[in-house]
């Protein structure tokens, strides 16, 4: 996780030597950028392309910015916003019906036995289906907050909404997600009772 002190330090280093420190930026934030892209494009291979292009755009932007602006950047929400915009652009004219399994399996710890992997895959499908049921207004904020780990301030900056609005959207989205989970569990219990 990137803490503000580390990010500020990285921003300072990027302002002095972009080429020498850019790989650290990529290493620190590649999971976030990929995760944001995946939430929008829904295909792991496409999300990888989007993430790569997002980092290319970030590099180009950083190379044009004055050093002072680079030092002051809040890197996590700035990169998340670039990834979000790139993913939205990517979607124009592309299909969106894909599973998240490939991405989850590529991140899976080596050595998982097949049964545990199958259970985890089924749980991911279950939670992804519940998340997909959320209205679009709540889906992305909930995923970015609770799956990708953005703070409310970072989320507000990424989505270009006030902090109070994103807090409200996340809270309502989580409440809807909880209600959907409870309904699904009740339906499972009823099926098992029959």
Brief descriptors of the model:
mainly alpha, 0% strand, 194 residues
Give a brief rundown of this model:
The chain is mostly helical. It has helices at residues 4-16, 18-41, 44-64, 67-72, 75-91, 101-107, 114-133, 136-146, 152-159, 163-193.
List the helices and strands and how they pair.
Layout: H1 4-16, H2 18-41, H3 44-64, H4 67-72, H5 75-91, H6 101-107, H7 114-133, H8 136-146, H9 152-159, H10 163-193
What does this structure look like?
Helix content is 81%, strand content 0%. With 194 residues, the protein is mainly α. The chain is elongated and about 65 Å long.
Give me the secondary-structure category. Answer: mainly alpha
Largest sheet: none
Question: Share of helix among residues?
Answer: over 70%
- What is the gyration radius calculated from CA atoms? 19 Å
Number of strands: 0
Please tell me the overall pLDDT: 83
Number of helices: 10
Please give the alpha-carbon distance between the first and last residues. 46 Å
Proportion of residues in extended strands:
under 5%
Outline, from the CA principal axes? elongated
Low-confidence stretches: 95-104
Instruction: Report the order of strands and helices.
Output: HHHHHHHHHH
């Amino acid at each position: 996780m990137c803490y503000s002190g580390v990010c500020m330090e990285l921003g300072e280093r990027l302002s002095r030597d972009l080429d020498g420190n850019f790989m650290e930026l990529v290493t620190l934030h590649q999971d976030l950028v990929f995760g944001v892209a995946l939430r929008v494009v829904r295909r792991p291979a496409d999300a990888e392309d989007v993430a790569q292009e997002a980092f290319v755009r970030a590099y180009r932007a950083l190379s044009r910015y004055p050093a002072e602006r680079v030092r002051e950047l809040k890197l996590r929400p700035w990169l998340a916003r670039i990834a979000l915009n790139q993913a939205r652009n990517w979607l124009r004219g592309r299909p969106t019906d894909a599973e998240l399994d490939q991405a989850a399996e590529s991140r899976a710890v080596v050595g998982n036995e097949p049964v545990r992997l199958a259970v985890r895959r089924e749980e991911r499908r279950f939670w992804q289906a519940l998340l997909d049921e959320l209205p679009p207004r709540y889906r992305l904020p909930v995923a970015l907050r609770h799956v990708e780990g953005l703070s409310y301030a970072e989320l507000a900056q990424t989505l270009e909404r006030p902090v109070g609005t994103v807090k409200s959207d996340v809270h309502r989205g989580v409440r809807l997600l909880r209600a959907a989970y409870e309904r699904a569990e009740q339906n499972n219990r009823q099926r098992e009772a029959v």
